[in-house]
Amino acid sequence: MSIPNSVPSQDAAAGSLAADRQDERLVQHHGPGGALRAFVARIRGGDLGALPVVVGLAIIWAVFQALNPVFLSSTNLVNLSMQCAAVGTIALGIVLVLLLGEIDLSVGSVSGLSSAVLAVGFVQWGWPLLGAVLAALALGAVIGLFYGLLYTRFGVPSFVITLAGLLGFLGLQLLVLGRTGSINIPFDSWIVQFAQQMFLPEWLSYLLVLLTVLAYGWQGWTHARRRAAANLSRLSTTSILLRCAALLVVLAVPTWYLNRTRGVGLMFLLFLVLVVAMNFLLTRTRWGRAVFAVGGNVEAARRAGIRVRRVYLSVFILTSTFAALGGLLAASRLAAANQSSGGGDTNLNAIAAAVIGGTSLFGGRGSAYSALLGIVVIQSISSGLTLLSLDASVRYMITGAVLLLAVVIDSLSRRSRQAAGRG
Amino acid sequence: MTEPSGIPAPAVRPHERILAMRGISKHFGAVQALTDIDLDVYAGEVVALVGDNGAGKSTLVKALAGVYPPDGGTIEFAGRQVTIDSPADARNLGIATVFQDLALCDNLDVVSNLWLGRELTVGGTLDEVGMEQQSWKLLRELSAKIPSVRIPIASLSGGQRQTVAIARSLIGDPQMVILDEPTAALGVAQTAEVLNLIERLRERGHGVVLISHNMADVLAVADRVVVLRLGRNNGVFQVGDTGVTGESIIAAITGATDNAVTRRAAQKNPEKGGEP
C-alpha cells in the first residue's frame, strides 16, 4: 500500500518547504480538510480507485438485507467469505494478466483440470495428498509457461491462445476424470478439513488484526521518518495514527462479526494473505514495477532494458498457477471434483471480479486488492440471489449486468483521466 | 552546479575514443538504409549527426541503441569489439539513448519513469525514498520545471517529458548519451536549458551524439559535425575551424553548394550572399 503524500510536512524545518513541495504551481493541501479536497479532485479527474466498488457493495448489501434479513447475518457472511476464497484466488491471477493488458480466458478450465488432478491422483491413484496438490499446481505453472511461450515466441494474441486453452483443458479435465465423472475427496483428508472446518481461534484472529495494524503503522512511521530525513514531504504522525485507527476498524469489526458464529476460515485467510503478498510484490519490487511498465507502454519498458519476455512469462505462469490453486480450493470446499468443476460461471466470475474491483482492461492500472473487493461483490450478489431462491438464470443475468457496468465505469474513467491528464 | 550524488561521472579519461563504428550497413528489404558508415565518438565530445530526412541518422542511432542490430560492420566500444543485439546490451555497455518518441510510461509517475529498469532497492524492495530524493537532485541540477515527481507522466507537457527523458538517460552512469532531436518540441528557454545540459554532459566526460535539424543548435554545442547523406558518410566538420559554417554543412547535407536552401537564402538577402 503506497502512502500518498497529500499532507505536507508539519515540521518542515524553519518554514522551508520539503524538496518535493517547492514548486509554486503545486496546489498545497494542508491538514485533513486538504486531504479531503485532494481526494475529491482525484475522483473528479477520473482516478476513481476503489470508490465505485465500495459504493456499489454498500448498495448491494443494503438491498439484499432489506429483501432478506438473513443476508447480513454472521452465518451467511462466514459462508460468503468461504465462497470468496476459490474464485477470488483465480481472480488474483486475472488481475496480474490484466495489468499487462492481456487476458486469460482459460482460468476456469485450468481450475477444473487442477481439481480433477487432485481428486484422481489422491483418490484413484493413491498419490500422497501433498504430492497431488503439488502436481496440480505444477501443471498450472506448466500451462502458464506454455501460454507465455506461445505469446512471446509467436506473438499470438493471448485472447486466442487462452480461448483454445479453455476448450483444450476442459477436454483434458474430462479425460483425467474418465468415465467416473465425479470423484469424492474423503472428508477426513486435511485439504477438505482446511477448506471446510478450520477456522481461526477467536484470540488468534484478534491477535492477527492487531499485528497487521501494528505492522502497517510501523511501516508508515519508518517510511515517514525516512522521507523526513531525505527532506521530502511526509505524513504527519497524526495522519498515520488516523490511518491505523481506520484500518483497525476495517479489520476488527468484520472479524468480531464473523467470530459471533464460526469465525475467520483458514481458507479465506489464505486468500487474504495471497492478496496482501501479491500487492507487496506489485508495488514494492522491481518485478511489480516492470509489470506496470509493460502494461502501460511495452515499447518504453523494452527500451528501458526490462526483459519484457520474462515479465510476460512470469505473469502467465502466475495466472495459471493461481487458477490451479483456485481449483484445488474449490474442490476441497466441495469435497469432490466432477465434470462441471471450474465450468459454468467460474471463468466469467473471476474476470468480472478483477474488473469490478477496479483493475483496468486496458492494462497498467489496477491493484491486487481489486480481486478481493470484486469477488466480495460477485459472491454477495450470488449469495443474495440464492437466499431469495432465485435460480441461476437470474444470477447469470445480474452478474453479467454488473460486469458490463464495471467495464463501462472503467472506460468512462479512462476517458476522464485522459481529459484530466492522468493517463 | 553540483554533481548529483550517486550519479558519478564516467570513469573514462577525457579525449579517449569511446566509440568507433566501421563499415556499418543495414538494409530493410530492398532499401539500403546504411552503407559503410564510419562514426567515432570521443569522451567529452559532442558529435552532431546531421542529414536530411531519410539520410539514415535514426537507423544508425537505433543500431547503437540495440533496436535494429546492423547487418554488417564492426562496433568498438571503450576499446573492445562489441555486438549490440538488444537495448539491454546497449545500456549495459553504457550507451544511453533518448529517442524522439521519448518512450515513457504514461501510467507511471516521474520517479518510476526515471528509474525504470534500474530501480534502487533496499533489502529486495524498491527504495522509493532514495529514488525520489535523487530524482529531485538530478532535476534541480538540470533546472527542470517539474512541479511534482509523484504525478503521472500523462499530465506533463511536451518539454517536461523531454526533460524527464533526458534526465532518465543520465541515471545509470552512461559513457555515451545519444539524443535524437532533443530540442524539436521545446520552447526557447527550454531549448537553451537542453543545450546547457548537453554542455554539462560534455564537461562531465560523456560522449554525446546529438541528432538535430537545427543548424543553430548544432553550431552552438557540437565539437564535430558528421553528415550523412542517403545512408553514406558525406563529410565531417570540425566546428570552429575556418570555413565551417552553416552553409558548408547544409551543402554536405543536400549534396550540392547550389541547392534550394542557398538559392532561397540568396534571394532573400542578395548582398550578404546567403547567411542562413
UniProtKB/TrEMBL annotation, chain A:
Localization per record: Cell membrane
Main location: membrane
GO cellular component, one term: plasma membrane
Keywords: Cell inner membrane, Cell membrane, Membrane, Sugar transport, Transmembrane, Transmembrane helix, Transport
Pfam families named among the record's database cross-references: BPD_transp_2
A GO molecular-function descriptor: transmembrane transporter activity
InterPro entries: ABC_transp_permease
Listed transmembrane segments: 48-68, 80-100, 133-152, 159-178, 198-219, 240-258, 264-282, 311-336, 348-364, 371-390, 396-413
Keyword flag GTP-binding: no
Keyword Magnesium: no
Topology versus the membrane: Multi-pass membrane protein
Lineage: superkingdom: Bacteria
Function: Part of the binding-protein-dependent transport system for D-xylose. Probably responsible for the translocation of the substrate across the membrane.
Name used for this protein in its record: Xylose transport system permease protein XylH
From TrEMBL, chain B:
Name recorded for this polypeptide: ABC transporter ATP-binding protein
ABC transporter domain location: 19-255
A molecular-function term among this protein's GO annotations: ATP binding
PROSITE patterns: ABC_TRANSPORTER_2
SUPFAM superfamilies: P-loop containing nucleoside triphosphate hydrolases
PANTHER family linked to this entry: CARBOHYDRATE TRANSPORT ATP-BINDING PROTEIN MG119-RELATED (PTHR43790), SUGAR ABC TRANSPORTER ATP-BINDING PROTEIN (PTHR43790:SF8)
Lineage: Bacteria, Bacillati, Actinomycetota, Actinomycetes, Micrococcales
One Pfam entry name: ABC_tran
Organism for this UniProt entry: Zafaria cholistanensis
Keywords for this protein: ATP-binding, Nucleotide-binding
CDD domains the record matches: ABC_Carb_Monos_I
